[in-house]
Amino acid sequence: MPEFIPVDLKNELSEYINIKKEFDSLENEVARFRLPIDIFMDYIDQLQNAHNKFLDEALKTARNSPYHYVYSSGVVKYLNKFLAKELPHPEYYKEGEEENWGIEVNENAPFSKKTLELLEEINKNPTRKFYLDNKEDFVEHLEEPMKLLFAEISSHLPKEMLSVLETEKNIVSRFPKNDFGRGGAWDFIWGAFYPKGGKRIRDAQLYIWINKDILEYGFSLGASGTVVEERFKRNLNKYNKEINKILKDDVTDYFNRFGVKDSDIEETSSFQEWIENINNYDVNICRKVEIKEVLGTDREEFIDDVTKAFITLMPLVYLSIEDTPMESIIDFINGQTTGTINLEYPLPQISEETSMNVSELTNWISAIKRKKQAIIYGPPGTGKTFVAEKLAKNLIGGSDGFYEVIQFHPSYSYEDFIGGIRPRTDENGNLSYPIVPGRFLTFCREAQKRDGNCVLIIDEINRANLSRVFGELMYLLEYRNQTVPLAIDGRHFSIPSNVYIIGTMNTADRTIALVDHALRRRFAFLKLEPKYEILERFHQDNDFDVTPLINVLKRLNKHIEDHFEVGISFFLRDNLQKEIEAIWTMEIEPYLEEYFFDQPEKVKDFKWEKIKDEIMG
Hints:
The chain is 44% helix and 14% strand.
């Protein structure tokens, strides 16, 4: 390291300076000056120049530099104020004039002093009322900074992670507890990236967690005893040696807590112990730091640290979401794209997300594979499209296949679906009439390039005139190995063997009995009834108890015939507590008025004014 203090300055100030080795690991000496103020002012420029050179060198290795132990932020803070003539004389500066945080607060830190103050206050008063009374401060200094932090981290993640993880929706937690009206609040805030299609509180998490004392970031699983945890531990036990070889060096050198969450299970400081005996520990790896240390860290440096940590731990996410994860992990480690291969989406996971029995889902998948096309039918709001997408993900899982969603409507035509003439004008104004393939032909041409299953979901399939829209496709749906000439251009066409069609049908618009018999023969029909468990699961981490709403819906649906019940998707809204009155009065009541047009007294029993107290508590 270079000499920071010139020799002539050392000689001139020899009676006021003490120079010695501070640490064996330091190549340079540390100088301490005790100067009268008049002498200090004579040498102020030279001393400041020497000190600046020292800081440039000593701090260039950032947080891990050993020079942080000899760099006194308090002294430099005072020195800078003195040089700026904010303080007239050193004796006027009294210890305790500013709060001693133990570390200088970086003006570009990811959080502020106010962040820590709010966390300390809500720890003393963990109530919903305290949070609401100070909501603006919590939003400004905790919730919004947390959301912005995750947004910036996601912008640094590789595309392989972005294709797997949810990085935009429901990332950050809320302070109010969902404690059924008891008015409690959490004294911490946390956020996480989690697998797409999953839940932040239940599935694999790359998380950040903060309370008044510490900040943690790392990998965890949201809930114990789930299919996700079983899959993770099974995979880690099976691929123990491979994962240890991949992660050991990076994880051991950086993370400092293994195998502890909020349970009574003891943690270990050894990654080796944790990975070899995962059945004895919780699923959690993190780096734990004091919150005050975070306040002294530059924002960009913090984002860089967390991003690197998340990338390091990504193989553990694959262990939790894939039954055979090693290929994806190796591709990820080698920097190869995994975007062309879909993740496995097993039926137990779909069962957990839809509340449908695995045996029922197995039968549905078998029917779709056997017939190649199926229609999910049921009352409005039962989640037909939601379930169709889950089934599509299962069918394409582990392959290079894909799925698309289109929606039929009364004016949907053969030209839209198969193809037809579309007038076009070129840049010179010349008009031409090319034959343009429709959505289904385009879909099939893309499917021919793939080896895996490809699924076309047709939402509200019964709203179009199906015989007119499908045309000669009606024949091919039944005879998949045949070809027919298309009416649009005479070319022979067949449906690729890897193409599957899943339609959804709202039975309130048109009952299954009215569906064309030829169509019924070509499709498997799968009945879906309201699943109230989905509504409970969707709102389980919110502060709005939906149990009273479910009771009202069950009572209402007893008065309604099959195929016309009120489903639950109307109420799958993040801000349901604020929106439920509008949903009920503008969507549910008009539907009931139409259904009970000759029984107005039943409509009155379910008017919002009649049932709002029961639902809102």
